[in-house]
Design a protein that fits this description.
Organism: [Clostridium] polysaccharolyticum
InterPro entries: HD/PDEase_dom, HD_domain, HD_GYP_dom, HDIG_dom
Structural class: mainly alpha
CATH class: Mainly Alpha
Distance between the termini: 32 Å
Protein name: HDIG domain-containing protein
Pfam families: HD_5 (PF13487)
Number of helices: 10
Strand content: under 5%
Number of strands: 0
Radius of gyration: 18 Å
Shape: globular
Length: about 210
């Protein structure tokens, strides 16, 4: 058997893994993008801001595609400290990728800072309160919610009410003005089509994980 034939099976597996990573990232990004857009609207932001944050929501985790071996397809095994440090660089990777592609400053800032916590315990720069761009504070809230209501390799999705309760338990991570706007949105009629979208994309994500 030639070397090419011997390597065909692992090559096919690698191609499938990359495809699954991309599909997961796209579906998660679509959910975050829609949530962020409507939360920004709820906060009274103009069309330009809302469009930019929707784009940032779509692309905020693009840097994770460089980290697929640490993130996707994992079951219940935990990340080592060194791996956690590397995974936390994904927002920096996303920023660099999008900057090279010519995206504007407002989008880049939202992407780079979307893991900053309002109390200063986030990353990459441990920014606190209003030092964190508003767009990033919105993405932080929407990203956490989208992750909680999605099936992951290591747990099943939480229902919406439970997800909100879990976020309330961690309220220090969020700008309360943003979080209250988020809650108003998910309790409004406008949330219904987004909720349907979440269910649709969740089914796709579940199929990917399975």
């Amino acid at each position: 058997m030639c070397l090419t034939e011997q390597n065909k099976e692992p090559e096919d597996a690698m191609r499938l893994a990359v495809k699954e990573d991309l599909e997961y990232a796209i579906n998660h990004g679509i959910i975050v993008s829609n949530l962020a857009y409507y939360v920004a609207k709820e906060l009274g932001k103009d069309d330009s801001f809302c469009s930019n944050i929707a784009m940032a929501g779509m692309l905020h985790d693009i840097g994770k595609l460089k980290l697929s071996k640490y993130l996707y397809g994992r079951k219940k095994d935990t990340l080592k400290i060194e791996e956690i440090k590397y995974v936390r660089m994904h927002s920096t990777f996303s920023y660099k990728i999008l900057k090279e592609m010519g995206f504007q400053k407002e989008i880049l800032e939202a992407v780079y800072y979307h893991h900053e916590n309002y109390d200063g315990t986030g990353y990459p720069d441990n920014l606190k309160e209003k030092a964190i761009p508003l767009s990033a504070r919105i993405l932080r809230t929407c990203d956490v919610f989208a992750a909680l209501v999605s099936n992951r390799p290591y747990r099943e999705a939480f229902d919406i009410d439970t997800a909100i309760e879990l976020m309330i338990d961690e309220y220090k991570n969020f700008d309360m003005k943003v979080f209250l706007a988020f809650q108003r949105f998910i309790n409004s009629e406008q949330f219904k089509p987004v909720k349907e979208l979440i269910c649709e994309k969740e089914n796709e994500i579940s199929a990917i994980i399975d």
